[in-house]
Write a structure and sequence with these properties.
The complex is a heterodimer of chains A (431) and B (273). With 431 residues, chain A is mainly α. Chain A has one domain: Formate dehydrogenase/DMSO reductase domain (Formate dehydrogenase/DMSO reductase fold), CATH 1.20.1630. Chain A is built from 17 helices and 2 strands. By secondary structure, chain B is an alpha+beta fold. Chain B is built from 8 helices and 9 strands. In chain B, strands 8-1-9 form a 3-stranded mixed beta sheet. A two-stranded antiparallel ribbon of chain B has the order 2-3. The mean pLDDT of chain B is 88. The chains are: A mainly alpha (431), B alpha+beta (273). The interface between A and B is large, with 53 and 69 residues.
């Protein structure tokens, strides 16, 4: 106890923050137990709208974990070793995303006691089966990538066996990165295909959905990793990334956002501007009447969620401002969440008209999550922030980490060295 | 001396990328393409067993619903609820009032359509719902994990989820419309119309013909007071359903999305098909 008391006395603000997150986590635990006891009747889901907030959280947290495979690929596949400065943090963000998704899915299925069934009973024609398998395997890859970081930064390093295991895992990291990239390319897209393959619902049925999902995941995942890094750096008053790495990762996030926007605009234009399939037009009209779908699509998915972050990341003036970068990452992540929410709900809200006559037999569904549904989400967010805060405090996530003074001195020294190198090599200026 | 290194990719890099693409593609094909040999073997085993039992004929159970006769009495709805012990808000077999383009009302009832190319079957991540050899789309309640993807995929809203535990609920349709012949489903699994599978299974071996002998015919078909529902073997040209389909114009719901349903409808007067 005394160690804890001492810690609390030394860092009261951090301790209060942890306590707050622990309360959020506790709310989640209570909500989950409540759902497990009473079943899914305590949600506002229905037979007409069987997926809601939890699926949105599940899709979003997996998408926002996509920074892990992208930045691991930078380091281990494209051999850009210096990006290890951010890759470790990305891997932790990834693991938190995937474990959050697993919590959400576990609560969301009707029979949580059978959660492992897809691993036993294969049904290879189901995109959901493929997703489950990929997520299981990829989470193992992420664990393998995070494990050496934990061993290295805690007293566990004193145990010879664990140290050996960590060293071994670190050595096979390139293989893990390859496998991780393959798995991620598969399931990040399949999550979009979950909706894209459903021929019954015109707003969903689309070949672009899988690609939109992976592009938005890469853009949002990198943006979120960068933003939590910058916020953590501010709170720790440290410099966590070399300036050039920060600059390049931000630019990459900007290009990823542009790529996502490009496909998004085309996939909209094909069926809404250059052609007007009656089924899609009818569904979108209904959505416009009954939901803020149109408003949230243009403002949150396109403008705030992709276009503005892309501008911030790509315009050198805003890219140099770390608050602008933090904002861009938060907006990008918000854009991903709104996209997943709109995607999930749009297909359900619009009723399928299968009746043979012309009467309007079916009415649009309505949905707003129940208190328990929010409770579980509060718990998941609490878990995510709690785990990140502890990791950022106690693990060696940023190999570059140094004080601001050190970083500044280093930068000045390098600039001076470059200048003198220039002076030596350049011919004397003509007089 | 103005050498600029224009190499974007070394040969080594290119090989790596190609290898990566190859591995990804191989994994994708391995996962997406037809069943693993083990599963295939199981299916071929079942097939062989079935052919050994019944070498000459494989039935395909189907239904014809005559919308020109249906009066919307909902007897079929209640008989189904009693026989299969279904709650009011989870009906397997539903009734709607619809309209022809000229404004005349008509009645539609809809069981599960038992599609041969069923979207619900292809999305189920655990194979808890599948096409049986005799055309039925079957639910395995012991395997269902309750993810509700089948409900999302079904083009006809024919699936309902057990949101709550129904163990102690009364069934208001019993005994007036029949007595439950199957167990109630547990909380957390999906359910849907089974074509009264418990009656059909093994009927032929007993010398009974579903669609002809009432004890092996779905409850909704037996109870219909106006003879609007017919049941039988679509693979047998002499069955009641095959004869109707051969002689009367029929249609299937949302034919254009290619589900290949086993339920055919006779249109009401005034509805062009």
């Amino acid at each position: 106890m005394t160690a804890v008391t001492r810690f609390v006395r030394r860092s009261p603000i951090f301790s209060a923050w942890i306590a707050l997150l622990a309360i959020m986590f506790g709310i989640g635990i209570v909500s989950i137990i409540y759902v497990l006891i009473h079943g899914l009747q305590v949600t506002n889901l229905s037979d007409q709208l069987p997926w809601g907030l939890w699926i949105t959280v599940d899709l979003s947290s997996i998408a926002l974990g996509a920074g892990a495979f992208t930045l691991s690929a930078f380091v281990y596949i494209f051999n850009m070793k210096r990006y290890e400065a951010i890759a470790r943090a990305a891997v932790v963000v990834g693991l938190l995303g995937y474990s959050s998704a697993m919590i959400a899915l576990f609560v969301d299925i009707g029979r949580p006691d059978r959660f492992y069934f897809p691993v036993i009973f294969w049904q290879v024609h189901s995109v959901l089966w493929e997703i489950t398998m990929c997520v299981v395997f990829y989470s193992s890859v992420l664990l393998m990538e995070v494990f050496p970081i934990i061993v290295e930064s805690t007293p566990l390093r004193n145990i010879r066996f664990l140290r050996g295991l960590a060293h071994f895992l670190h050595r096979i990291m390139p293989i893990a990165a390859w496998i991780g990239m393959g798995l991620s390319l598969l399931h990040q897209s399949s999550l979009g295909a979950t909706y894209g393959v459903l021929i019954a619902r015109p707003v969903w049925f689309s070949p672009s959905a899988p690609v939109l999902f992976i592009l938005s995941a890469v853009a949002g995942g990198i943006a979120l990793t960068l933003t939590v890094t910058l916020i953590t750096a501010d709170l720790k008053r440290k410099c966590l990334l070399p300036p050039d790495i920060l600059n390049n990762v931000a630019r990459f996030a900007g290009f990823a956002a542009l790529a996502y926007l490009y496909l998004k605009l085309w996939s909209w234009a094909v069926t809404n501007y250059y052609s007007h399939p009656p089924a899609i037009r009818h569904d979108l009209e209904l959505l416009g009447e009954h939901t803020p779908y149109g408003f949230t699509f243009w403002w949150f998915e396109i403008l705030l969620g992709a276009l503005i972050p892309a501008i911030i990341y790509l315009w050198p003036r805003t890219r140099r401002n770390r608050y602008a970068l933090m904002l861009a990452g938060l907006l990008s992540a918000l854009g991903v969440v709104v996209f997943r929410w709109n995607m999930t709900l749009s297909g359900f809200v619009v009723p399928m008209d299968w009746s043979p006559g012309v009467a309007n037999v079916f009415t649009p569904a309505t949905y707003w999550p129940s208190l328990v549904e929010w409770g579980v989400v509060v718990g998941i967010v609490g878990y995510w922030l709690l785990a990140w805060s502890l990791a950022a405090r106690f693990l060696k996530l940023y190999p570059y980490e140094r004080t601001i003074e050190e970083a500044r001195r280093e930068m000045l020294e390098r600039a001076a060295a470059e200048r003198s190198a220039l002076d030596e090599s350049a011919p004397a200026p003509a007089r | 001396m103005n050498e600029i290194d224009t190499t974007l990719l070394t040969r080594r890099d290119l090989l790596k990328i190609l290898a990566g693409a190859g591995i990804s593609a191989a994994v994708a094909v391995a996962l997406a393409d037809p069943l693993s040999p083990a599963v295939e073997q199981i299916f071929s085993g079942l097939e062989a067993q079935r052919q050994a039992e019944n070498p000459e004929h494989q039935p395909h159970w189907g239904m014809v619903i005559d919308l020109s006769k249906c009066i919307g009495c909902e007897y079929c709805v209640y008989a189904c609820q009693a026989t299969n012990d279904v709650a009011d808000d989870m009906r397997w077999n539903i009734h709607l009032v619809d309209e022809t383009p000229t404004g005349d009302t008509f009645h539609v009832t809809r069981p599960c359509l038992h599609c041969q190319n069923a979207p619900c079957v292809s999305v189920c991540p655990v194979g808890a719902t599948y096409n049986r050899e005799d055309g039925l789309v079957v639910m395995d309640y012991d395997r269902c994990i309750g993810c509700r993807y089948c409900e999302t995929a079904c083009p006809y809203g024919a699936r309902s989820f057990n949101w709550r535990d129904r163990a102690d609920e009364p069934n208001p349709h019993v005994p007036q419309w029949g007595t439950p012949e199957v167990e109630r489903r547990p909380r957390g699994v999906m359910e849907k119309c089974t074509f009264c599978i418990h009656r059909i299974t093994g009927a032929l071996e007993q010398g009974l013909t579903p669609g002809v002998d009432p004890e092996v015919t779905p409850a909704c078909v037996n109870i219909c007071p106006v003879d609007a529902r017919h049941f039988g073997d679509l693979n047998d040209p002499d069955s009641p359903v095959s004869r109707i389909i051969a002689t009367t114009p029929t249609f299937r719901l949302r034919e254009e999305i290619g589900t290949d349903a086993s339920v055919y409808y006779i249109p009401p007067e005034g509805l062009a098909i």
